[in-house]
Amino acid sequence: MKTKDIEIEVNGVSHKLKVKPKTTLLDLLRDQLKLIGAKKGCDTGNCGACTVIVDGRAINACLYLAAYAHGKKVTTIEGLHGDEHSLHPLQQALIDHYAVQCGFCIPGILLTAKAFLDENPHPSKEEIRQTLAGNLCRCGIHNRVIEAVWDVANRSPGGEEG
After folding, report:
1. How far does CA 103 lie from the centroid of its chain?
2. What is the separation of C-alpha 154 from the centre of its chain, rounded to a whole number of angstroms?
3. Is 159 exposed, middle or buried (0-12, 13-18, 19+ CB in 10 A)?
4. Which of 71, 77, 96, 104 is most buried (CB neighbours < 10 A)?
């Protein structure tokens, strides 16, 4: 089967890779780059467990062909962090709000929330709820996740309530 050469930046690191035409971005990340934070849940784009950020947009990596990522910047959960000594504010907020249970859905939720807040830094709770509706959580912590994202959205840059 023919392969295609692609160049992709993942979590700030450039890669030159060969991919088969039907290889998904999820499979490339997990199998070739060994980044296993994005989960293979439904393989149909319904659960959000595979969410990554491509050029600022949250996408379902199970539906996105790896070849489409040529020349793009991809952020996975492994690339989401705060400064060198802390978690990203969204990660910390989920911990603070007890919004982490089994963890399967959390990488996708975090990346969906990050891409959303980058575009809309001060959303309403309903906008957060609608945005995260495509990220399923079987543990029942969805309301806590919404509160955590709301908390981050309502902090000033200094971390104070605003």
Report:
1. 13
2. 21
3. exposed
4. 77
What tokens were used for 159? 């971390």
Give tens-digit pLDDT for 19-36: 999 999 999 999 999 999
CA distances from 150 to 41, 88, 92 (A): 26, 15, 13
User: If you average pLDDT over residues 147-155, what whole number do you get?
Assistant: 94
- Mean of pLDDT over the chain: 92
In this structure, the number of other CB atoms found within 10 A of the CB of residue 16 comes to: 8
Query: Is residue 91 predicted with pLDDT exceeding 90?
Result: yes
**Alpha helix stretches (DSSP H) within 65-105:** 89-96
What is residue 101's predicted lDDT score, i.e. its pLDDT? 86
Pairing of strands 51-54, 73-75: antiparallel
In order of start, what are the domains of the chain with their CATH numbers?
4-79 (3.10.20.30), 89-153 (1.10.150.120)
Average pLDDT over residues 68-90: 93
Among candidates 145, 44, 19, 37, which has minimal Cα distance to 93?
Answer: 145
